[in-house]
Write a structure and sequence with these properties.
By secondary structure, the protein is mainly beta. It has one helix and 90 strands. β87 and β88 form a beta hairpin. It is flat.
Length: about 950
């Protein structure tokens, strides 16, 4: 088959590279070549003998050729198409916007080609509608939309060129930038567009030459000196270029000086600028209006001589860095107080119908170099439908020192300070909320000292007092809810941490909270800080801290968190998290902290908890805190209540329930926790006075918890009392580990019904908590150091006790199993424990065990001379059945004579060892060893006891 020799098929457009002929190669062995120039796609006809290069005379040429060796022997066909195209049209201007009208030139690199163009959006063609043959540069006003194409005989037309052009006048400019000037200046205007006409206004209107009548004046090009009046010169300029679109309006603002003088004695409302004492003085209104008019970023100074009490009729908006200072007799650079400015007020014209948020001061984008000192700002008078605040900070980092912000009344939300994505500093300030109305549809409706929101919010409150209600707001009625501080929407911040004490408190409301943390907030609470939930009245709910899906940090010395007086219910800290998007992970205390958390008052019939933690997404740490549920009164009380799958870690705390009267009192109460993470370690847990139930540690339906190295106490008053109470109602306590704890049920030797540890299991539940190396002590008449109680059919109460000391004191039982009728229970396993008590191991079940009772390597003692008492009694458990195996090794029986003196060895007899009250003992591995030293084998005295 032949091949193309020099030129290959394709499109050719570059000038000087367009071929005129095509050559073919004769294959080896072929006699000759034939070719056809039929149109593309047609069947080749009119075959010609190939004798010389083939001429390309048309714009599109298709060559088909074959080789032959004889008249009947033909090779395969070679086909190729050659396109000869006109070069593309080019322009001398790139598409875009130009501030001067320019002529557009077109060109084509193909010699002698004709260019045709259109300006109406149609595709150009020679002689076509809307098409023009290009002969000279194109010039048109305003806008130019060009399409162009080139043609040459014998060539394909070029591709279509398309471009859009805008002729726009360059912006008019002034010779002076916006700013503050100490004296009058010469002002000129200019425009980069040649021949442009400039129009301007000084009254705030947009100049418009084409309006009827025209707005503004034409600028004649001469320099002009303006005597600027209040509130400065607001210059607006616009330029009109020939054949171009006019420019947008550009605004310039000018002010005489960056220092304004306010005289509290001789102040007036005139608008004459004053640059030195003795000149006409401005009011606060005029000075702040000038600040707004100028704009820019240069600091503005307002210097006050007074006293000055100011009442406004609309919000004072401060839109640039501002410094207010006192007496102008002192140089501004050294003056940092405005003690003579006493107050700023804003009165709404119609206080009952305002439908938008109302505020007195708005600081927007004010940087951290600004400061405001020593005066008072009032929120608007009256009420609004939305909310009210004395001051609103939006993306502002200004500093406040000894300023007082006072909120007033609102129908839904009231605050002394509202902060959005800002990082202000408040030093020794007084911040007061107002009165939120009774509307409860909103998430945070109510009264707040300061409302902080937004992920960029990071304010600091150092010293001073922050309260939900002040002397103005409190007189107007109680809101639905109140909080001294509200942090929400991922806000951060800092409270306290200075030598002077910082006080934060809620108010008189249905729900009263000292600090409310919501939706991802993560501020820090530092030292010298007192947080109180409510005031003198009794709310429906009160808490020092309310944590709702937030992760605050409280670490520092001398932090007191309290519910307030007589709340119902009351919480020092209330923490909840049910939304996975907003988990609660508070960090309360650390090794260097001194933190007190408590409730206050009597609160008749009310629940009280030092800390309440609830929700499956609540965790966090509580360290080195003193936590008290209640000081006195009635109602259930808890040091810490944990529930609904919460998993905090609690360590090195002193935790007391407080006194509950006729209600339960728990040091720590935890229930409904089925996942790992609950840790209670190195704490002191105490139950207060209760005539119903007093317990140092109460775990109900808790799994995978670790309780390590704690000192746990029941109550010294009230019945019953227990150190630890384990309850299995719906799930067991598998995975609950109690290691190296000291547990005391009570210290009442004349009272009955107490327990060191009580393990209670309802029917059908398997519960297997584990005890390792604990010391369990109880005192009192007919009390148990460890009570294992199963209730119901097929209950499985099987705790594991390894290396523990169970000490029943002089008249108590060290270990007792009490299984309900028909129990079929799996008894406890006691391995290498030491049991001291009247009946060291006792079973009062009425049905036989079905598995072994194991007492291995233990020390068991009786009471007195063992006359009439027993050291070990499991006989009741064998009535009507058989015991598989009992292994008793290293078994000591002592005769106790005098407390604190070494006991005498006593030969064991059937009086004090009852194993075989009925038949059925399969095997007995029994070793009788005699000891004559005390403590035996280096055994220490149980903590809290003076000896047997």
């Amino acid at each position: 088959m032949p091949t193309f020799a020099d030129i290959q098929p394709g499109s050719y457009v570059e000038p000087g590279l367009v071929p005129t002929t095509v050559s073919l190669n004769l294959p080896v062995g072929a006699l000759g070549l034939r070719y056809s120039l039929s149109p593309a796609g047609d069947t080749p006809t009119g075959w010609l003998d190939y004798t010389e290069p083939i001429a390309l005379s048309d714009s599109i040429t298709t060559v088909t050729a074959y080789a032959y060796t004889s008249q009947t022997n033909v090779s395969g066909y070679l086909t190729g198409t050659f396109v000869l195209q006109t070069a593309a049209v080019t322009a001398d201007l790139a598409a875009g916007t130009y501030d001067t009208r320019l002529a557009l030139s077109l060109a084509c690199a193909t010699p002698d080609a004709e260019i045709w163009y259109s300006l109406d959006g149609s595709v150009p063609a020679p002689g076509g509608a809307g098409s023009q043959r290009y002969s000279s540069p194109i010039l048109q006003d305003d806008r130019l939309a060009v399409q162009a194409r080139a043609w040459l005989s014998g060539r394909e037309a070029s591709i279509v060129f398309s471009a859009d052009y805008d002729w726009v006048t360059a912006p008019a400019s002034a010779s002076l930038p916006t700013g503050v000037y100490a004296s009058e200046q010469l002002l000129t205007l200019a425009c980069a567009t040649a021949g442009a006409a400039i129009w301007y206004t000084v009254d705030g209107l947009d100049p418009d030459r084409d309006a009827d009548p025209p707005v503004g004046e034409p600028y004649d090009g001469s320099a002009v000196a303006y005597s600027w009046g209040e509130p400065g010169l607001r210059l607006r300029v616009r330029a009109y270029g020939p054949g171009c679109q006019p420019t947008a309006v550009v605004e310039y603002r000018y002010l005489w000086s960056n220092v304004f003088y306010v005289d509290g004695v001789n102040g007036d409302d005139n608008l004459n600028a004053g640059t030195a004492p003795g000149s006409p003085k401005k009011t606060i209104r005029a000075a702040l209006a000038l600040a707004n008019a100028v704009g820019g970023t240069d600091p503005l100074a307002i210097r006050v001589a007074g006293p000055f009490s100011y009442v406004e009729t609309e919000p004072l908006r401060i839109l640039r860095p501002l410094t207010l200072s006192g007496s102008y007799d002192t140089a501004f650079s050294t003056q940092n107080t405005i003690a003579n400015l006493t107050e700023i007020r804003y009165n709404t014209s119609d206080p009952g119908t305002t439908a938008v948020p109302a505020y007195t001061l708005l600081l927007n984008h004010v940087d951290g170099s600004s400061s405001l000192d020593s005066f008072r700002v009032y929120a608007p008078d009256g009420t609004t439908d939305i909310g009210v605040a004395a001051i609103v900070l939006d993306q502002t980092a200004v500093s406040f020192t000894t300023v007082r912000f006072s909120g007033l009344a609102a129908r839904e939300i009231s605050a002394g300070v509202a902060i959005r994505d800002s990082s202000p500093l408040f030093v020794d300030c007084t911040i007061e909320g107002g009165t939120g109305g009774s509307v409860t549809t909103g998430e945070y409706h109510g009264a707040y000292g300061a409302w902080i929101s937004g992920p960029l919010a990071n304010p600091e409150f150092r010293g001073g007092t922050i309260s939900a209600l002040g002397d103005l707001g409190a007189a107007l009625g109680e809101p639905t809810r109140s909080a001294g501080l509200l942090f929400t929407e991922e806000a951060r911040g800092l409270v306290g941490g200075v030598a002077s004490n910082t006080v934060v408190q809620g108010g008189q409301a249905e729900v009263s909270v000292g600090i409310l943390f919501g939706r991802g907030a993560a501020p820090q609470l530092l030292g010298n800080l007192t947080v109180t939930g409510c005031g003198a009245t009794t709310p429906a709910f009160a808490a020092g801290l309310f944590i709702d899906g937030a992760s605050p940090v409280a670490q520092g010395d001398n932090i007191v968190i309290r519910s307030g007086v007589t709340p119902s219910p009351a919480y020092g800290i209330y923490c909840i998290a049910t939304d996975p998007l907003y988990p609660a992970n508070p960090q309360i205390g650390d090794a260097g902290s001194t933190i007190t958390v408590r409730t206050d008052g009597n609160g008749s019939g009310a629940l009280a908890a030092g800390i309440w933690i609830s929700g499956q997404y609540a965790s966090g740490t509580i360290q080195a805190c003193s936590i008290t549920g209640r000081t006195a009164g009635a109602g259930p009380t808890y040091g810490i209540w944990i529930g609904d799958k919460a998993r905090p870690q609690i360590s090195r705390c002193d935790i007391a329930s407080g006194d509950a009267g006729a209600f339960p009192a728990y040091g720590i109460h935890a229930s409904n926790i089925e996942q790992a993470g609950l840790l209670i370690e190195q704490n002191r847990l105490r139950a207060g006075v209760s005539s119903v139930d007093a317990c140092g540690l109460y775990l109900e339906d808790v799994m995978f918890a670790k309780v390590r190295r704690n000192r746990i106490y029941g109550s010294d008053a009230g019945v019953p009392s227990s150190g630890v109470d384990l309850v299995a109602n719906t799930v067991g306590l598998d995975g609950v580990l109690l290691v190296a704890n000291v547990i005391m049920g009570t210290n009442q030797p004349t009272s009955s019904g107490h327990f060191g540890v009580r393990h209670r299991v309802s029917g059908g539940v398997v519960s297997r908590p584990r005890f390792y190396n604990n010391t369990i002590v109880v005192d009192g008449l007919t009390s148990d150091a460890f009570l294992n109680l199963a209730d119901g059919v097929a209950a499985q109460a099987r705790p594991y006790l390894v290396n523990n000391i169970l000490y029943g004191a002089t008249s108590s039982v060290a270990f007792r199993e009490s299984l309900a009728s028909g129990g079929n229970s799996n008894p406890a396993a006691l391995l290498t424990n030491s049991l001291f008590g009247m009946d060291s191991h006792y079973n009062d079940n009425t049905v036989p065990y079905t598995t072994a009772v194991t007492i291995n390597s233990g020390i068991l003692t009786g009471d007195g001379d063992c006359a009439g008492n027993v050291c070990l009694d499991v006989s009741a458990g064998f009535t009507g059945g058989a015991l598989s195996i009992i292994t008793i090794a290293f078994f000591f029986v002592y005769d106790w004579h005098l407390a604190g003196t070494p006991p005498d060895p006593l030969v064991m007899d059937g009086t004090n060892l009852r194993l075989l009250a009925s038949s059925g003992l399969v095997s007995e591995d029994f070793y009788d060893f005699y000891g004559n030293s005390w403590p035996a084998a280096g055994l220490p005295w149980p903590i809290g006891a003076t000896g047997p």
